[in-house]
Amino acid sequence: xxxxSQCAAAxxxxxxxxxxxxxxxxxxxxxxxxxMREMVRLAGGLDxxxxxxxxxxxxxxxxxxxxGQRLRAVPSGRVRAVGTNTLRKARNSAQFIGRAxxxxxxxxxxxxxxxxxxxxxLGVSHSLEDDSRRRLVVDIGGGSTEIILGRKFEPRRxxxxxxxxxxxxLRFFPDGRITAERMRAAEIAALQELEPIATVYREIGxxxxxxxxxxxxxxxxxxxxxxxxxxxxxxAALKKLSKALVAAGNAADVKMAGVTAERAPVFPGGVAILTxxxxxxxxxxxxxxxxxxxxxxxxxxxxxxxxxxxxxRTVADLADRYRIDATQADGVKxxxxxxxxxxxxxxxxxxxxxxxxxxxxACLHEIxxxxxxxxxxxxxxxxxxxxxxPGFSRGEQQRMAFLVRAHRRKFPxxxxxxxxxxxxxxxxxxxxxxxxxxxxxxxxxNAEMPRIEVEVDGETLKLRFPEDWLQTHPLTAAxxxxxxxxxxxxxxxxxxx
Length: 497
Description:
By secondary structure, the protein is α/β, with parallel strands linked by helices.
């Protein structure tokens, strides 16, 4: 299958199915060399308190163990695995993720709805002919539906709605029985979700509408095989399909092309959602695309590997939008990275991702000044926890938010313990480096800082300045003494001379 070390792989832990693809990406073209898919129905395992059942977690872990066996030869930096709507909702998702990562052998990120929509659009747009027409992309998943407007490879407006084929089917067709009344109730519920965005989307407009992922592709296959639509999905064909489901009477009795035995239980909910999308957005015809979230993950990962990381553009855009002092941010970033270089091996921070995280936090640590100078580090953390940040997972935003929250004054130990166990030690140490970089640039002056040598021994840091420098800079010496008290409470010892 080629050189595995040069491949890229994506794993999509969807609310209905788990998908994995392994591919070669060359000059913006994706060549899939292996593909796996299993129907896990993660969303169906959520109880009334939004906790995943042990049964569904075990089923998901077994699936990921099989995926992990296939990915064993692919380096970790070339694998991207993400969880979507159900893992965003599940209260015990952290417990599941730990087991899932052990089974897969790779880290798993939970991504926000807008990030899911961006990646879906990226996957869809790469599977289409490159043209300049405005596109409407619709992706109906197990737990959410993404609706995106864009042009070429750039999404312009994105929405992730809380409706999916699994949730809709469990709510309106729990016993599999399909009636006209149930179907219309499911459609109206979907129309309610669409109501806040429908007018805006219609006003912006589009020139072509495209559907993606399993539900839409299954519908397209069903209406084509029945002779109701020659290409894609038409509004008239969708109405005929809905009536055919009602005539069948039960999901188990639906015998149509594209509707496998495992898809049948969630098919009525998916049809109801797509019918509502057509009605709300006044769609007459929709084509279908082969690309979706997993393909978008591959292209996004390829961009990172080729030094075209959208996260860098996101940070730059935020710095510009919130008018962050670029000179100060750059000075803090350079000092923080210089300190990281000196301690990265001893402190087990020797990966590019830690360097990037520290650099991004340095660039954005003053973003909260756009709200208020008072307690601005807390405002900064709030923004970074809650902004839509293209390219970033929820975990990455959480880690960055903690760094900027903790870059000054008392060390927030309670917030630190809220991080996943594996993040606590490295993020805690990165925070010390950011605090020192900010402290050393407190004067906001353009003068070059002296060369500082840093040694670490466990949680003890020794800073060595040029001879007599601290004596001639008493304010910095006082700041370092106070910082020593703050860090002592966090379990560090700071020595400087």
